[in-house]
Design goal:
single chain, 149 residues, alpha/beta, Rossmann fold, 7 helices
Length: 149
């Protein structure tokens, strides 16, 4: 199943006019992942995306725009559910690795589905936890070709 699991912040930057460099980088990454059918998100990521883009951006999306965007991901990307197994594993991630619960939950999705790369700026770059590597796609050293499976 591998692909690259994408965290909420990567999706949000696509719409963040306050961060034009990150917006362009997000566009490049998400475009590539969509074209190559490598994009993976979780239900958690889509829920957070909807919330953040309609409430937290300086120029928030309308409810219709955010809904349309979520529907595009649902229709074209692999979307993994947050299950009871994910919740159990996330709790273990909090206990063992001192992750915040929400970070542990996205790690658990990647771990349980054997997705080796999680694109996010919320973790220590190149940190590996039980086979899941966290890669910050907004660092100047990031090269998508290095991570595309």
């Amino acid at each position: 199943m591998p692909g690259l699991l994408v965290d909420t912040n990567v999706l949000v930057y696509l719409y963040d006019q306050q961060a034009p460099d990150k917006q362009l980088q997000a566009l490049t990454i998400l475009d590539y992942l969509a074209q190559e059918h490598l994009g993976v998100v979780s239900t958690q990521v889509l829920a957070e995306f909807f919330w953040v883009t309609t409430r937290k951006l300086s120029h928030p999306l309308t409810l219709d725009e955010a809904t349309a965007s979520v529907n595009r991901y649902l229709d074209t990307w692999l979307v993994l559910d947050v299950t009871t197994s994910v919740i159990r594993e996330a709790c273990r991630g909090v206990q063992v690795y001192q992750l915040s619960y929400w970070d542990a939950q996205i790690w658990a999705v990647a771990y349980l589905h054997q997705i080796p790369i999680l694109l996010s700026e919320d973790f220590q770059n190149n940190q590996v936890i039980e086979g899941v590597r966290f890669v910050n796609p907004f660092l100047s050293t990031f090269n998508l070709a290095d991570w595309a499976l």
